[in-house]
Every structure is written in structure tokens, then in C-alpha cells.
Amino acid sequence: MIALRHFVEALATLLSWGLDIYMWLIIARAILSWVSPDPYNPIVRFLYNVTEPVLSYIRRRLPLVFGGLDLSPLVVLGAILFLKVFLVQTLFEYARMLG
Known about the structure:
The structure is a single chain. The chain is mainly α and 99 residues long. It has one domain. The chain is built from 3 helices and 2 strands. The chain has a two-stranded antiparallel sheet with strand order 1-2. A hairpin with a 2-residue loop joins strand 1 (65-66) and strand 2. The mean pLDDT is 93.
């Protein structure tokens, strides 16, 4: 049972880190949208390649554009925060109950 507890804790920690990293990538993408970045810059291309699949999915499902302002990053950030509060904390509590 101890091994399962540590596995669940490690899984929750990795999930939390992954969500944090993706949250910062979304924020960086949103900040870059305020300026006109060089589309051939490797960092800009990386940000677009990593975030565009999720953002385009949200745009197709929930067309949230008000006055030219795309609100899909806010929806993704809200989903990330929900997952961190609900799923990650649930995994940590489950791990605590196993120990």
C-alpha cells in the first residue's frame, strides 16, 4: 500500500507541474497576441504549436469572441485551475487515505 500511496502522490505532483507549465504557456501565448511577434521565431512557433490544438478546440465548441477579443485562453485557464483544485487535490487526499 505504501508503494501505491507514493505512486498516487507522484502522479498528482506531476499532473500539478504539467498543469502549471501549460498555464504559463497559455499566458505567454496570450501576451504574445498583444504584439505582432515574428512567426518564424522558434519560441513563438513552439508556443503556437503547443497551445493551438487546445485553444482551437475551445474556439470551435464555444465561440467566445467579443469585439475581436478572443476569450478562449480564459476558458482554458479556468479549466486548468479547476483541474488543479479538484483533480490534483483529490489525488493527494486519496494518497493520504492509502497511507
